[in-house]
Write a structure and sequence with these properties.
Largest sheet: 8 strands, mixed
Strand content: 25-35%
Helix content: 25-40%
Structural class: alpha+beta
Number of strands: 12
Number of helices: 11
Radius of gyration: 19 Å
Order of helices and strands: EEEHHEHHHEEEHHHEHHEEHEE
Length: about 325
C-alpha cells in the first residue's frame, strides 16, 4: 500500500478585472491571485477496493472539528468533489502504466481549513493537492505544465492553487504567470496579513456574473495586465498594496447582498488598511498592517452581526506540494 499527503493553499484576489462574455458564455479575466496560509491537506492511499472514496473533515480556526460543515460534506455526491474528479483523471493515466495493479482503488481524506463557498478556492485547492498527491502516488512524472492543463479542466482557480505565491491569471483566469514565489522565496516580496470575514450565507458565482453583465459590463475599464509599477506594488508591503486592490465583481455582489457593504464598512472603521471582496464573494478580505493588527481586527470584527467568522491568514504562500510519502 502506498500513501501520499499533499497540501494546497486557498487564495484571495488582489485584483480582478472582468471582460464581457464571449460567445461560449465565459468571461475573460485578468486577475492577480495571492495564495494564503489557509491550506487544504489531501491524503491519497491505494486501496484493494476498486473506485475512489473520499472523506472530508472540516476544521475551525482553533483546530476543532467543524461538525456542521463535516456533516454537510458527507452528504454531497462524491462525484462532484473536485479531489475525486482530479484523482479519477490521474487514475486513468496510472491504469495504463507500471502502477496499473495499484490504480484500481484509491481512498482520499481531505482535511479542510479553507472556508466553504467563500470565494477562497477551497474546492480548487482540494483538486490541486489531489493532483500532486496522485502524481506522486503512481509515479506518473507529470510536470507543472501538464498538471496545470489538467487543473484547467477541473476549474479556473485550480492552476492558481497549484502555483501559489502571487500569480497573474489571464484567459479565464487560469493561464498563470508567477509574479512572486510563496513564503518569501523571492526576497523582494513582502508578507501580507489578512482577516477573512465570512458571511452567514453563500453567494452564487453565476448570479454575480449575470448581475455584472446586467449593469457593470458596459462600463468596465478593460483587461489590461498590471503595469510594472502595479506589479511592484502588489509585491510590496501592505501600505502600497492597499492602494492597488480592485475587484470588478464587488459592485454586483454588493447589490445582490447589501449586508456585505456593512461588513466592509465595519472593517474600515476598525482600522483595516483596505477592504476587498474575495473573488465573487461572499467573503470580505480586510488587509492588516501585520500579524498583530490582523488578530486585533479579527477580535473586533467577529462581533459584527454580518460576520459569521473572522479568520486570519497571510500570504504569499507556497503552492501545492507533497508533504509526505509512505509505503506500507
Amino acid at each position: 500500500m502506498r500513501e501520499v499527503r499533499a497540501s494546497a493553499p486557498g487564495k484571495v484576489n488582489l485584483t480582478l478585472r472582468v471582460g464581457p462574455p464571449t460567445p461560449d458564455g465565459y468571461h475573460p479575466l485578468v486577475t492577480v491571485f495571492e495564495a494564503l496560509s489557509l491550506r487544504e491537506t489531501v491524503t491519497v492511499r491505494t486501496s484493494k477496493t476498486p473506485g475512489v472514496r473520499v472523506e472530508t473533515i472540516a476544521y475551525l480556526p482553533d483546530g476543532r472539528v467543524d461538525e456542521a460543515t463535516t456533516a454537510a460534506m458527507a452528504d454531497l455526491d462524491p462525484g462532484s468533489h473536485l479531489a475525486v474528479r482530479a484523482a479519477r483523471i490521474l487514475q486513468r493515466l496510472a491504469a495504463a502504466g507500471p502502477w496499473a495493479s495499484t490504480a484500481a482503488g484509491v481512498s482520499i481524506r481531505v482535511d479542510k481549513r479553507v472556508p466553504v463557498a467563500g470565494g477562497m478556492a477551497g474546492g480548487s485547492a482540494d483538486a490541486a493537492a489531489a493532483l500532486v498527491a496522485c502524481n506522486q502516488l503512481w509515479d506518473l512524472g507529470l510536470g507543472a505544465d501538464q498538471l496545470q492543463a489538467i487543473g484547467r479542466s477541473l476549474g479556473a482557480d485550480v492552476p492558481a492553487c497549484l502555483v501559489g505565491g502571487i500569480a497573474l491569471g489571464t484567459g479565464r483566469g487560469d493561464r498563470m504567470r508567477v509574479l512572486a514565489d510563496g513564503e518569501g522565496e523571492a526576497g523582494n516580496t513582502s508578507a501580507h496579513h489578512w482577516v477573512m470575514l465570512l458571511a452567514h450565507e453563500g453567494l452564487s458565482t453565476p448570479e454575480v456574473f449575470r448581475e455584472f453583465d446586467r449593469i457593470d459590463a458596459a462600463r468596465a475599464p478593460g483587461l489590461a495586465e498590471p503595469t510594472p509599477e502595479e506589479t511592484r506594488a502588489l509585491r510590496s508591503g501592505p501600505e502600497e498594496l492597499s492602494q492597488r486592490l480592485v475587484n470588478d465583481l464587488q459592485a454586483p455582489a454588493l447589490r445582490l447582498r447589501p449586508e456585505l457593504a456593512r461588513t466592509m464598512e465595519a472593517a474600515r472603521r476598525a482600522g483595516a488598511l483596505a477592504v476587498t471582496l474575495s473573488g465573487s464573494g461572499p467573503t470580505v478580505a480586510a488587509l492588516a498592517r501585520d500579524a498583530e493588527h490582523a488578530q486585533d481586527l479579527a477580535r473586533v470584527l467577529e462581533a459584527e452581526d454580518t460576520v459569521a467568522r473572522a479568520v486570519c491568514a497571510s500570504g504569499p504562500a507556497r503552492g501545492a506540494v507533497v508533504e509526505e510519502t509512505e509505503v506500507n
